[in-house]
Design a protein that fits this description.
The chain has 130 residues and is mainly alpha-helical. Helices cover 76% and strands 0% of the residues. The longest helix has 28 residues. It is elongated. 10% of the residues are buried.
């Protein structure tokens, strides 16, 4: 919902980078950061006509996109998975427990944040853009 598009792209990446500096850098950061950029693009489409259904759809799409990209990155070139279609599927199956948590968290927080934003618009009409 940032009016400045650059901040909308930079903020999530900067926050993720700061946490990576604390938690630790890893070789698959390109997949995580690329996924985040695509998720921000999804948000850019939603922000012009935000509804709860669109926000939840965007959260669902973002979760699926993140899951597909990051698990493909784990599979690609890995010694733990066969470098064929069955290895890719094995990587996706191994990632399902993480996907479930990501999906539930994304949907829950999207509903809370979207609801809070809409509540603030009603409670403080001056926040609504003319």
């Amino acid at each position: 919902m940032f009016s400045n598009r650059a901040i909308g792209f930079i903020a999530p990446l900067a926050i993720m980078f700061l946490s990576d500096l604390i938690i630790g850098l890893h070789p698959l950061m390109y997949a995580v950061y690329g996924s985040l950029l695509l998720i921000v693009l999804i948000g850019q489409f939603i922000k012009y006509n935000p509804t709860l259904l669109r926000a939840l759809g965007g959260a669902l799409a973002g979760s699926v996109l993140f899951y597909l990209i990051t698990n493909a990155a784990v599979w690609y070139g890995s010694v733990h998975y066969a470098q064929d279609f069955s290895g890719l599927i094995s990587s996706y199956i191994a990632g399902l427990p993480f996907f479930r948590g990501t999906l539930v968290g994304d949907l829950l927080f999207t509903a809370v944040f979207f609801g809070s934003y809409k509540f603030a618009e009603v409670k403080f009409p001056q926040l609504v853009k003319a």
